[in-house]
Amino acid sequence: MGIGPITTSGYTEQPKEHYYIILGEKLHIETNVERTPLSNFLLVARYHWWQSTDSITWNEVDKKSNGNSSLDLIPTTVGKTYYQLSTSYVIPHAFIGSIFYSKVATVDVEREPISAKNVKVHTKADYLFNIDSNITRGTTFAYSTSNPFNATESTKWSVDKPDLATVNGDGHISANTNGKSGIVKVTGTINNKDNTIVSDSKEITVGNGLIDRTAHEGKKARFEIQGLDGNERDDELGDVTINWYKQVNSQQMELVKSETNPASNDIFYETHRVHPEDNNSKYYAEIVVKQAKSNDNSVLIGPATLTVLPPNDPKVEISSTITNKTLNTDYSGTQLNEVIDGDELNYNIDLYNNSKRDIHDAYITLPLHLYTQIEHIKVDDAEIDNSDYLLTTNEKNQILRINLNDFIAHHEKNIFIEIKVKNIHERESFDSQIDFHGLDPDSDEYTSQGNKLNINYINNQLTASVKDLHFEPITLFTHNNLKYRISANNDPNEVISIDDQRRKRRPLKLFLKQESDFENKDNKSIKLPADLRYYNGDSFTSLTNKTLINETTYGQIFNSIKWHKNQGPLLHINNSNPIPGDYSSKLTWQFEDSIT
Length: 596
Known about the structure:
Radius of gyration: 49 Å
Structural class: mainly beta
Number of domains: 4
CATH architecture of the largest domain: Sandwich
Protein name: Cell surface SD repeat-containing protein
Organism: Companilactobacillus bobalius DSM 19674
Helix content: under 10%
Number of strands: 48
Shape: rod-shaped
């Protein structure tokens, strides 16, 4: 993962695979061998260079040129020679440890110079830490490739900002350890023998390991340790723990995440959705490396500053109306009244993405009455396939989902939905609204709600419920020959409860008639000398005749019937000596259409 000290003596810079030089010129092969600072420093490094002309038989290089990690010599013959370094750590005159071999370098010696037509600069790493630590990488190597590949002049190295990083003649780049950050341009130049010059540059970053981040309010920010390479982690490295800290203002740092041996692609900290109070907060990462038989080694990198920007969510504006096509009116609004079974309703929905951000995987949802039937759906005047919408059902209603795919910034979409009303059996009010869903460019969910829509359903029928009429008791020697209804049959209680759900309300009349004499319920041969009278003000009408109780005009709702105590049907006793008892008479209530 590119962090953690070197735990075995090894080569941090191998020889180049090929060197091309002119006969008689000096050959320089650079390697870099490092040991862990925690290793046994009683051991002494021993270097041996070997050479071969056939890569099979190897001989030790002349002792005058041997004994260092780099090789300097002047070849004396034209052609190919192979070189390799072996390194071991020993206690002088007593012990020889393991031997480590470098890669093989092939040296081509030419009689005449070969000029480079161009050169390309490369670096082993693109990010260096400006921290003095054996855990983080502060050095790397630059190397070049030329055209033709066997150009014989070596590359000269330079940097444009030596206060950030320096480079030596072998391309070994070292970052500053003073905390300075920035971009360094590394330039490689080849001065050909024919006086032509070719060069190329490569930029590398020097920093504290973390980069400042910005995030819009309501979004998340992600901090990653820079300069990590999973291919560089030493197999013998012990546990590596990454501790992430947050600091607000000058408060104490707070541990917000800790992971041991995270995968190289999982070394990051993602904040919660940020708020304005998170602005200018600082984030740090502590790298703790624990090796066998040693103390913990750690380094704190950072800080990185979080800047919270104003919200930048998409903004989808929704305008929706409904129309009752069956009524053949031009009305289009957010409320429909007196919708009945079989009506065809139209939804017109306008969506506008009033922002600079596209929305992906967009769709809308619309609740519908449980038995609603879909007739047509159009998006931007084009009928959509059945696969582009989905109708699901729950206990209360249906949910219509229409897929819209991508919704481009500053674009509009028009959706037309035609439905048919089904199975309306009672008065009902149904509320709904359009919900828009999608993913913004950050893959965060975005939703927007439209205006509320209201449909009031009716069953297109008139129903009436009639209560039995009950009067004051019949007693001997009654002196009051007019019996009033009991309180349960008087205002505010309704005698006839009427639910008029007709959409076309034609004029109606309600009649009442006493169809039979009052008979004693225990002995029907006993008649009550009485009749019902219908009082309207001070006047009355005998209900032995068909009597008009109430009537409506065209379009008027037929309301329920209720009377005050001294109004409506009252029982009149025709003599003062009635036989006490419970009497009943058949009454007929009848609605009649007053338009013939």
